[in-house]
Amino acid sequence: MTPRMTITGVVLGAPDARELAAFYERLLGWPRKADEPDWVQLANPDGGTGLSFQTEEGYVRPVWPHGPGDQQMMVHLDIRVDDLAEASAHATACGAEPAAFQPQADVRVHLDPAGHPFCLWVEP
Fold it and tell me: VOC domain location, by residue (predicted)?
């Protein structure tokens, strides 16, 4: 029998946890649950999985899409939206950078200030 396990959060490394958390606060509108110099947690107001950030010394920004020898992304976030153009404009206004490579028509890939890719997508 598999023991009960619940994923309670996803943690993104960053050169500055508070700076990256502030970006996702603006993007998602989620409140801070914990705020320490090198660790910040955002609470999902719907009660789902939260999002946390930790400062990592020697952080190396990922490259997406990566090439030979580039630091690869280790994780990315998929964020469902109602209106792709509106959500993409909001993400950019919050400080995201649209990725140069966009692999699908119903998805917009952006890079957060620490270089983590995230995908905004609409259901077909």
Answer: 6-124
